[in-house]
DNA sequence: CACCATTGGTCAAATACATTGACCTTTATG
DNA sequence: CATAAAGGTCAATGTATTTGACCAATGGTG
C-alpha cells in the first residue's frame, strides 16, 4: 500500500512536471523568435488582464523581485509593447498599459495556450475539468504569495 | 459566450501558473539552503526512480541540453550525492546512481511534494483526482519531448 | 512647515546560468 | 584499420538574476 501510494504520488509529480512543460512550450517558441522569455509573457499577460496596474501590483502577481522585473519590463517598453504613465493620484506610481502591438503579441501567446487547454477540456469532458480545477485551485492556494494577491 | 469562455481559459492559465509555483516552492526552499537549484532536484529525482541510467537517458527525461546538464550533474558528484560508474557493456556510457546522502536529500525533497499533493487529493476526493489526472495526462502528452521518453 | 520614515521605482556591479562550439574517448561499420 | 557515429566533457561567451545602493514622491508627526 505505501509503496503503491508512493508510485501514485510520483506519477502526479511527473504529470505536473511534463504538463507544465507542455503548457509553456508553444509560447516559449513564439517568444524565442523575438528573443523574449517567459517572464515577458507573464508581464504582458497580467498587464492585459489588469490595464493600468502599478509596477508593485505586477510584482506581487508575478512573485519576482523588483530588480528581476526591471530589465524585462524596460525591454518591453523600449520595444513599444508596453507604455507607462505616471498616476494622477500618486506621481511615484507608474501605470502600465499595453500598446496595440503589445496586445497583439499577448493575444497570440495566450491564444496558443487557450487552444491547447480548450481542446484538452473538450476531450476530457466537463467532470474532468471540474476535478482538475478543484485540485489546481487547492494547489494554487498553497502558493507562498497568495496573501499578496 | 466567447468572452465568458476566454475568462474560463484565462483562469485555467492562472491556476497552472500559481499551482506550479506552489508545487515547486517547498523543494526550492530546501534546495536554496544548500545552494542548489530545481535542476538538481530533477536530476536526483530521475536517478532515484531509475538507478543506473545513462547521462543520455537522463537528458531525454529532463529535456535540457547535454551542456546544461553537465555543470549541475558535476556539482552533485563533487558533493557526493551522485556517483557514476562506467557501464560494463559499453564503456562510453556512465551509469548514474545516488549515494546514501543523495537518496536522503531526494527523499526529503520529494516527500515535501508528496505531502502537499496527498493532502490536496484527500480534501478534493477521488473523483477530482481522477479528473485532474485525466487532464494532466492529456496535457503532458503534448510535451514536445514525449517521443523521447 | 520642517523632518524623517515609508513607498514606488531605478541603476550598476557582481554572480550565477545557459548556450555555443570545439574536443576526447569508445564503439560500431565497411 | 580507417572512419563515422555515439556518449560525454570542457572552456569561452553571452545572457539572466541577485545584491545592494540609490533617487523621488508621499504621508505623518512635532
From TrEMBL, chains A, B:
SMART domains tied to this protein: HTH_MARR (SM00347)
GO BP term (any one): response to stress
Residue ranges occupied by any HTH marR-type domain in the UniProt entry: 6-141
InterPro entries linked to this entry: HTH_MarR-typ (IPR000835), MarR/SlyA-like (IPR039422), WH-like_DNA-bd_sf (IPR036388), WH_DNA-bd_sf (IPR036390)
Keywords recorded for this protein, A-Z: DNA-binding
SUPFAM superfamilies: Winged helix' DNA-binding domain (SSF46785)
Presence of the UniProt keyword Ligase in the record: no
Pfam families: MarR_2
UniProt GO MF annotations: DNA binding; DNA-binding transcription factor activity
Gene3D superfamilies: Winged helix-like DNA-binding domain superfamily/Winged helix DNA-binding domain
Record-given protein name: DNA-binding transcriptional regulator, MarR family
Organism: Formivibrio citricus
Amino acid at each position: 500500500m505505501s509503496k503503491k501510494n508512493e508510485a501514485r504520488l510520483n506519477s502526479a509529480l511527473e504529470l505536473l512536471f511534463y504538463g507544465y512543460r507542455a503548457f509553456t512550450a508553444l509560447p516559449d517558441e513564439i517568444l524565442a523568435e523575438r528573443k523574449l522569455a517567459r517572464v515577458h509573457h507573464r508581464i504582458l499577460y497580467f498587464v492585459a488582464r489588469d490595464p493600468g496596474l502599478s509596477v508593485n501590483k505586477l510584482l506581487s502577481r508575478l512573485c519576482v523581485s523588483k530588480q528581476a522585473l526591471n530589465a524585462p519590463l524596460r525591454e518591453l517598453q523600449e520595444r513599444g509593447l508596453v507604455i507607462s504613465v505616471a498616476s494622477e493620484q500618486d506621481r511615484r506610481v507608474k501605470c502600465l498599459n499595453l500598446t496595440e502591438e503589445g496586445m497583439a503579441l499577448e493575444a497570440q501567446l495566450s491564444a496558443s495556450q487557450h487552444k491547447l487547454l480548450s481542446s484538452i477540456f473538450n476531450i476530457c469532458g466537463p467532470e474532468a475539468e471540474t476535478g482538475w480545477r478543484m485540485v489546481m485551485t487547492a494547489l494554487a492556494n498553497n502558493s507562498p504569495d497568495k496573501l499578496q494577491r
